[in-house]
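Summarise this fold before class:
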Amino acid sequence: MVRTDDEWAKDRVFVERILASTPFECTDLQRLDGGFANFTYRGTLAQSTPDGSSMVIVKHAEDLVGPDFALSATRSSREHHLLAQDIPQVQTEVDGTSVTVRCPRALHEFPQDHVHVLEYLPESSDLKALLCQSDCNEAFAQGVGSALGSWAKQFHCWGLHSDQAELRQRLNKNDQARELKYRINCGRLQSTIEEFPALLGAHAQLFQAVSHKMKEIADDRDNGIIHGDFWTGNILFRKSWFEVAASMTGADGVLAPTQSVFVLDWEICQVSSFVFDLGQMLAEMYCLWHFRRSRSSRVILESFLSGYGAIEERSALDILIVCGVHLIVWPWRVPGWGNAAQMEECITFGRELVDNAYHGRVDFFRAGPFGSMFRDESVASS
């Protein structure tokens, strides 16, 4: 949803009133564009926090209704509650720099007003935007991919643990997020078939079967907690760190000895299968390679899979079904990705992923970008 300048101005006044006379009162609120669901600001605090932070992120949610989705403003409390949990962190070394992959800290919530305050990562940008601008050196790409994959694995294991039973129960009380995830992916297959009948029309029955299968996987009672919108646009880096890596020479002691990578936007966190998180992330990494010819994205993709570790063969195929559906229904709806020929190639590749993964044709994938998922050391046979 695109907000007008007038809507932003009115909301800023509302948020300023909510924050006034609290420890999170701000002298300045700068709007942050990019998302469609919330009013999000970078706030300059009137007084720094006890740990010395002078800036925060402030998010205000409202009920949203679209042609194929609905989002309640209570998603704000969902995100805040989730970020208040002890979600795993991964500490590792990337190209000579100590790195922590983690979530931003939840600082405060105004639940009646659907406003909450989060930790801010200064001078940062998301992984998609950074890779669209430039490649980075191979050691950095390998380290970043491996760290993100390792974090995803630890998070998914954490979300399955018995210690999170109460949290899973709470998330399951409202299945709006899971329904949204289905509607904006499999739910858009039919309209995409109508848009590209020559590429997809003959496969309508396959897509119906796939949609049914994905619904069954999402609703499995043994599922754990997933992010729900896990993609390169929700991975945040310090720009200065990436710019040094983009020089292709490595850090060489130029940067601070430690860096944080944030995993953002937990509003549609849900109880579902991890295959949906991995399928979306792999699709978006592939898009960076396909449309931007980003060499680094291919390295990050392969290192991400290595960092995640062994995946049962059937689950690996389900991940690629999710990936294929994403490549079919999403890139052509996003302005600026590529020209018509590139879009048709992307949709065709997505169709091939879905067809071959659904029918279990593992050999199709061995030589491609996802081949490492089916090597003996990476995949446990089902």
